[in-house]
Write a structure and sequence with these properties.
This protein is an alpha/beta fold and 319 residues long. Helices cover 31% and strands 24% of the residues.
């Protein structure tokens, strides 16, 4: 599947993208619950293009700008995940003071009906929009019927621990359980970014690493992970990664992701890669010098190779 078209201006939607079957929500993570909403939107009007209405930035970032980064999927990653599920267009509406103050009635009439020309809507039972979240599922049902728009309200997807949510997945990653997050997402969680230059110490130690900054991604548990790396050409290769601030080397002001790709040689600087967390090996810790650090890295590599060999990743790492 190709990446969907991303449209941010609801006032100037090209004719070909008006009249979609539209799934609505923040959809951070594009997890199994979000997939249920996408299926419902498509099932409501399968002959129409499948679209998603979401907000950028996430409303929580607007209302609480000092919060630490929490996003599972920044917009490019979200769009890619949605495209893989058949979404053709993503309406990423700029969430600002004007949109936050728009009454639910105006949002429905001006954006969903007039702007996007939506023909069928689907949302989760807890979805709400408009000023002070005045547009809940009950309001949406009445307003959609009045405008001749179809609507499907999807019950929450639940498992043995309760309703599936982005919040639960974030907590699993922060607690060091990427496999459990994978089960709830329906795919491994990935940190995507551009490879930047470091101090080349990894190369000196014998483990050259591809370094990326976490940026606005959620910071998962700091430590060492068995990972797979998706390169720009689509190859997915086994690796071991460290997420942390390098306490043995004096500490960094920002958290970085350092990844050693097994049996790989090539220049990745300036290229975008995706690092998929597969298994948490150990916590980040400070060592008494470079020799103990080298021994630890060698053991990390051994364990990561062992873990990844036990996973069914296929001949190209799962692609």
């Amino acid at each position: 599947m190709s990446n969907p078209v991303i449209i941010s201006d609801w006032r100037a939607v090209p004719a070909e993208w008006r009249g979609c079957a539209l799934a609505m929500g923040n959809m951070d993570g594009v997890h199994r619950g979000h997939r249920a909403v996408l299926r419902a939107a498509h099932a409501g009007r399968p002959e129409l293009p499948l679209g998603v209405l979401t907000f950028e930035p996430h409303p929580r970032e607007f209302f609480r700008p000092d919060d630490p980064p929490f996003r599972l999927t920044p917009l490019p990653a979200k769009a890619a995940a949605l495209g893989a599920l058949g979404v053709k267009v993503v309406f990423a509406l700029p969430f600002d003071a004007t949109l936050a103050a728009m009454p639910a009635e105006a949002f429905m009439a001006e954006i969903l009906h007039q702007g996007l020309g939506a023909r069928h809507l689907a949302c989760g039972a807890d979805f709400a929009f408009g000023h002070r979240r005045g547009g809940d599922a009950c309001f949406l049902g009445r307003a959609a019927e009045a405008l001749g728009i179809g609507l499907t309200v999807v019950p929450q997807v639940v498992d043995s621990q309760g309703p599936l949510s982005s919040t639960r997945i974030r907590r699993l990653l922060q607690d060091g359980y990427p496999e459990r997050a994978t089960e709830k997402l329906g795919r491994p969680w990935e940190i995507r970014g551009e490879v930047v230059h470091g101090d080349k110490l990894g190369r000196v130690l014998g483990w050259p690493t591809a370094n990326i900054w976490l940026g606005r991604h959620l910071e998962p548990a700091r430590g060492v992970y068995a990972t797979t790396v998706v390169l720009a050409d689509g190859r997915e290769l086994p690796a071991v990664s460290n997420i942390g601030r390098r306490p043995t080397l004096g500490g960094d002001a920002q958290t970085r992701l350092e990844t050693f790709i097994f049996d790989f040689s090539g220049d990745l600087y300036g290229h975008e890669i995706g690092v998929r967390l597969r298994h948490f090996l150990r916590e980040d810790r400070k060592f008494d010098g470079l020799e103990p650090l080298k021994l630890a890295i060698a053991e990390d590599e051994r364990q990561a190779r062992q873990v990844l060999a036990s996973l069914d990743l296929g001949p190209a790492g799962g692609r």
